[in-house]
């Protein structure tokens, strides 16, 4: 019989924390639906709240819906270089073994997104060699997000503590795209 004393339990807990700190990891900057740890958990198969480093800023880029996702039947987010803009998002420190699952979620094997190494600022600290994903074949015009994607992105932005002004900017941009899409559909001629 093995008896676990309070001291043994503390030591075992310390070992779990120590092994997590020594585990091979990579930094990942999420700016779309992956900002929501609950949604990211669907793809990675484990709770991701513990991997959140915090809200982060990517300078020299802007958001755009320059990718159409057939699976979601709507536009999905991308980042585009723009020296006068910045993108807010969430910085994660993920276990290296999750790299394959994240690539699968971002359809890297299908040629939709690719890795891009960037620098972000999080809690006043500069993080170099951070992975994010960018669309390979960008559309010439933005495609509106669907309601589900809209809600997941906004929920992730708000619950991750992104600046309120940025959350409103994100909301307004997505809402405007949806309204434009509705207006376009409303006025298209009907087939006879």
TrEMBL record:
Substrate binds at residues 28-33, 149. Gene3D superfamilies: Gamma-glutamyl cyclotransferase-like. CDD domains: GGCT_like. The keyword Nuclease does not apply. The keyword Cell inner membrane does not apply. GO terms for molecular function: gamma-glutamylcyclotransferase activity. The active site is at 106 (proton acceptor). It comes from the Bacteria. Keywords: Lyase. Pfam families: AIG2_2. InterPro entries: G-Glutamylcylcotransferase, GGCT-like, GGCT-like_sf. This is Uncharacterized protein involved in cation transport. The lineage of its organism: Bacteria, Bacillati, Cyanobacteriota, Cyanophyceae, Coleofasciculales.
């Amino acid at each position: 019989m093995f008896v676990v004393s309070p001291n043994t339990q503390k030591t075992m807990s310390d070992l779990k924390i120590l092994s997590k700190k020594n585990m091979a990891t990579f930094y990942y900057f999420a700016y779309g639906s992956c900002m929501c740890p609950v949604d990211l958990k669907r793809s990675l198969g484990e709770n991701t709240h513990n991997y959140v480093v915090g809200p982060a800023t990517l300078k020299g880029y802007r958001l755009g819906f320059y990718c159409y996702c057939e699976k979601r039947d709507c536009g999905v987010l991308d980042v585009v270089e723009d020296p006068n803009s910045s993108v807010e998002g969430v910085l994660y420190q993920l276990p290296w073994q999750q790299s394959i699952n994240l690539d699968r979620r971002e359809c890297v094997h299908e040629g939709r997104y690719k890795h891009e190494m960037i620098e972000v600022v999080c809690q006043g600290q500069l993080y170099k060699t951070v992975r994010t994903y960018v669309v390979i074949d960008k559309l010439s015009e933005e495609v509106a997000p669907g309601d589900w994607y809209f809600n997941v992105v906004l929920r992730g932005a708000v619950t991750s503590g992104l600046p309120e002004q940025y959350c409103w900017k994100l909301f307004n941009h997505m809402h405007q795209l949806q309204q434009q899409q509705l207006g376009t559909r409303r006025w298209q001629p009907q087939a006879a």
